[in-house]
Amino acid sequence: MAVAPPAGLAAPATSADRAKLSAPAPVNPRQTGNNTFQFALGNGMQVLVIPDHRAPVATQMLWFRVGAVDDPPGLSGMAHFFEHMMFRGTKQVPDDAFSQIVAKNGGEDNAFTDHDYTAFYEEIAKDRLPLAMKLEADRLANLDLSDSHVGPERDVVLEERRMRVDNQPQSLMNEQMMAALHLSHPYGRPVIGWTDEVRRIDRASAQDFYDHHYAPNNAILVIAGDVTPDEVRKMAQDAYGKVPARELAPRAEFAEPPRLAETRMVITRADAKVPLLDRIYRVPSYAQGMPGQAEGLETFAQLLGGDQTSLLYRVLVEQKKLATDAGANYDGDVRDAGEFSVYAVPRPGVSLEALEKAVDQVLSVSTIALPGDADLNRAKTQLVAGVIYRRDSQFALASAYGQALAIGLTVDDVNEWPARIKTVSAEGVRKAAQMLQRRQAVTAYLVPGSDK
Amino acid sequence: MKRLLAGLALSVLAAMPALCLLAPVPAQAANIQNVDLGKNAEVWFAEDHTVPIISINISLPGGSAYDPAGKAGLANFAASMMDEGAGGLDSKAFHEALANRAISFSARAERDYVVIGITTLKENAPEAMHLLQLALTRPRFESEALTRVRAQIIQSLEQDQAEPPRVASRAFMRDFFGDHAYAHPVSGEIGSVSSVTAVDLRNFAHGHWTKYGLKVAVAGDITAPQLARLLGETFLPVSGAAPPTLPNVGRLGAPGVHLVPLPVPQPSVYFGLPGIMRHDPDFIPGYVANYVLGGGGFSSRLMDEVRVKRGLTYGISTSLTSLNKASVMAGSVATRADAVHQTIQVVKDTLAEFAANGPTQQELDDAKTYLTGSFPLAFASNSGTASQLGTFQRQNLDIGYVARRNSLIEAVTLADAKRVSKRLFDPARLTVVIGGSPAEARGPQIPVPLPPGNPPQPAPPPAGAATAQAPGVASQGAMPEPKPANKPLAGPVTTPKAAKKP
After folding, report:
1. Which residues of chain A are within 8 Å of residue B52 when distances are taken between CB atoms?
2. Beta carbons within 8 Å of A244's beta carbon, 6+ residues apart
3. Cβ partners under 8 Å of residue B400, min gap 6
């Protein structure tokens, strides 16, 4: 699921954010950007409205400030498993009737889970939006967890894990890298969970998770589409207003110890047919970084490996002909530490060692030489244009704002992001390159071969 | 339980307009207009000035079915080379010209067509179309780019050999289509891709990147006169030569269970039957029936039987896809090694029951309200609109179809749906391919013959059959995608967003 980058310099989101949720908020929609309106319900639910009148349809997203970091010890995968259980019925809307009612009304629905948040959405004709809201409110308040649903759904999740991870050597390697990168932070645990821990999830632990995390005062409702803020306020009050606020489990805060050494791993797999070099650095995020740091890292990632005009592609693939592909990525839209990753796929006959040496040369040059104006401008143009392209899609817009709010950033952070990217200087990019410290990184080789 | 459900529907819906009264046509559909680009070319245009973006979807008669003998993968190779240098711009300069203005440009081969997608900010549209013109008329096919792209395609083919869904779908297409041009993988085989030369690419581009049979769908921030001028200039120097016609297919299908062994925790199963051609009056009833059986995510019979009731899979879906010369009803499912045979049996039993009795009146009504009510979702963005219109164009529909489409679905009767279900879903004719090694051996299995000198070549799903995509062939790009671990984790249904509507 592509989630466009929001942005921000807000203080790190902590459990204090949850307390803030119950504070009184404006009852009437307040314009908070060119085309965004915000208000809150009496029970603490935050609401954001993004009008778009091109087609008579709307997207509802309900974001919860709960994710895989909140998985109970020994039960990794709980948040994601629970997202599945939200489709398993209430007393009024039993079994899988939720999705069937949405479909009958011409809607699409689904959900996604990450370390910091869980989100549910429906895309539906605007006159069915009240129905979609009532359905969401119903499962927020009245989920009916039964053993007869927990068992089969656990099997479904294990099949999902086989499909996404166990059958995919690159995903398996990434999972191992994350576990090594984060020394104690739960970002090191896979969102989908470790197989043997997923097997241990039962009805009681799921009920406990629901009781402590699913409440209107832990939720952000985003509505994008053919609606007005006042319409949404009435509908939301009608559907969600009666759901009572609940005491929330305090969200654990994690103080990640310093990394003192680089971690290196070689993973040999028979199902890997193509070798891969991958490195992930622990770096500041938008929430944690000093002003401008995350924007610098974002711009450097684009310049270093965002597309075929990037440094890594140009040098490794086109000039030195050591790789068939190479790139970089920055993920700073998180509550705690961000990640900066670099990868390259060797051409046949090129060793991963030689490839890594060439990658390190490119990185090393970037810590010394300033990027050229043309390259820097191109990278910034692409990042900023991405925000305009995002306006084409209700789903992308709702995702960008919902994600930002869910990780403790603000609407302003999202709206000001393009302007802040435009101010990133060549020196800012060089500083970002200098932040990539090998001891803050895990480097992995995926090697085709017998894993017996 | 049903009683309570009805109770909710009443309390919620009482205050709303009746369920089936959704406007049959999205707001934009009324605005879709033709733009003239001469004979043998067709342009559909949806004007919208909300966002300063233009999305363009272009289809040319240059899909993999036109690959010459021994050159399987040529159409895809050529499409992959489309942004690798043209006119005075080498590969690097061409990529920079796109990136400097943040123009998104992609080209991919399907079986019948090569499909080009362009999204650009309004002010960069002239530059975007100039680059397209260069790419179509003066491609360079230089040796550096050719060598690099070939290596990328071959690596991707190598990795596909370990991916059960690819292995299963490739073998399925080969078995199902026999010796027809639809049988070989869009991205080709390692051997055939290795043999492609610059001359092959040049000849293919010359013969197939032509405006004879050109289809263009545009949505966004431009006016009709501006668009007519821009497209007129862009395609003026493009060849108008008629491409060769494709042969008709013979007998379809290879009933039985075929096995391609692969040591993986979760084998993939691909299955299918002869479908119904797009121009056949039974296509729409068939599409509606397929929605009930396996096209409708959580609402489908197969999802209910295989996932919800038994927890055997993360997702199962079927789709009815009509290519220009053949149609296939295909489905896919993945499950743990020791549940493969059980899963296939559940699929067969579900098909048999459905063929015998068809959908219930309630299922048919629910399918219609979904299929008609969700239609406007496809037109909620410029990119969605252009892509949906392009899909209709590739199915050789007329521009009036967009307005007519929902009434055709409304007109399907229970008798239609039952008759067509009998015609479509006969489990005795089912071709089944297992990619992977089932843990328990049971039932007759036919080893799949390998093409000489090559290991099994997984193919992109023939028609987005593993997805909920409707008619119009979706194939995967040729670039390897080594980007690690996607997050966030999407769930719980694998149905992709923006599924194309029939």
Report:
1. 388
2. A43, A141, A216
3. none
Tens of pLDDT, residues A169-204: 999 999 999 999 999 999 999 999 999 999 999 999
pTM of the model: 0.89
A408: left (phi over 0), alpha (psi -120 to 50) or beta: left
ipTM here? 0.90
DSSP letter assigned to residue A315: I
Overall number of domains in chain B: 2
Dihedral sign of CA atoms B279, B108, A399, A231 in order: negative
Q: Say yes or no: B341 and B385 in one domain.
A: yes
A337 falls within a domain = yes
Exposure on the CB side of residue B141, measured as CA atoms within 13 A: 19
Indicate the residue of B121, B162, B489 with minimum beta-carbon distance to A273. Answer: B162
| Sequence-ordered alpha helix ranges (H) in B304-433 | 340-357, 361-373, 382-394, 401-410, 414-424
Q: What are residue B435's DSSP bridge partners? A: B260, B268
Is residue A252, in this structure, part of any structural domain at all? no
- Cβ distance of B311 and A178 shorter than 8 Å: no
Q: What is the DSSP letter of B306?
A: I
Count CA atoms closer than 13 A to B430's CA, side-chain side: 24
In a domain, B391, yes or no: yes
Q: Do A163 and B314 touch (CB under 8 A)?
A: yes
| Contact across the interface for B266 and A385, Cβ inside 8 Å | no
Among chain A residues, the shortest Cα distance to B8 is held by A92
Same domain as B305, residue B366? yes
Interface probe for A, chosen from B487, B495, B500 (most Cβ of A below 10 Å), is B487
pLDDT tens profile A139-168: 999 999 999 999 999 999 999 999 999 999
Domain count, chain A: 2
**Continuous segment of H or E residues that includes residue A58:** strand A57-64
What amino acid positions of A are annotated as catalytic residues?
Answer: 83
Q: With residue A371 as reference, give the H or E element that holds it.
A: none
Lowest mean pLDDT among A224-228, A239-243, B2-6: B2-6
Question: For the domain that residue B131 is a member of, what is the CATH number?
Answer: 3.30.830.10
CB contact set of B440 (below 8 Å; sequence gap of 6+): B338, B341
Contact across the interface for B119 and A389, Cβ inside 8 Å: yes
Looking at the structure, tell me whether residues A286 and A355 fall in a common domain. yes
Query: What separation in angstroms does the CA of A443 have from each of A429, A434, B285?
Result: 22, 17, 54
Question: B5, A93 in Cβ contact below 8 A?
Answer: yes
Supply the range of the domain harboring residue A294: 263-448
| Tens-digit pLDDT profile for residues B260-273 | 999 899 999 999 99
A8 part of a folded domain: no
Q: Which CATH number do you get for residue A223? A: 3.30.830.10
**Which domain covers residue B158, as residue numbers?**
27-163+173-235
Under a CB-based contact definition with an 8 Å cutoff, are residues B104 and B118 in contact? yes
Any A CB within 8 A of B162 CB: yes
Asked whether the bond before B488 is cis by omega within 30 degrees of 0, the reply is: yes
- Does residue A16 form part of some domain? no
| A77 lies in the same domain as A201 | yes
Let me know the angle formed at the C-alpha of A185 by A183 and A186, rounded to the nearest 5 degrees.
120
A101, A128, A156 ranked by CB distance to B311: nearest: A156
Report the chain B residue with the minimal C-alpha distance to residue A192.
B489
B338 by Cβ neighbours in 10 Å (0-12 / 13-18 / 19+) ranks as: exposed
* Closest CA in chain B for residue A382: B102
Q: Of B403, B425, B447, which residue sits at a domain end?
A: B447
d(C-alpha B459, C-alpha B433), whole Å: 13
- Are both B187 and B116 inside the same structural domain? yes
Same domain, residue pair B225 and B316: no
**Do A218 and A302 share a domain, yes or no?**
no
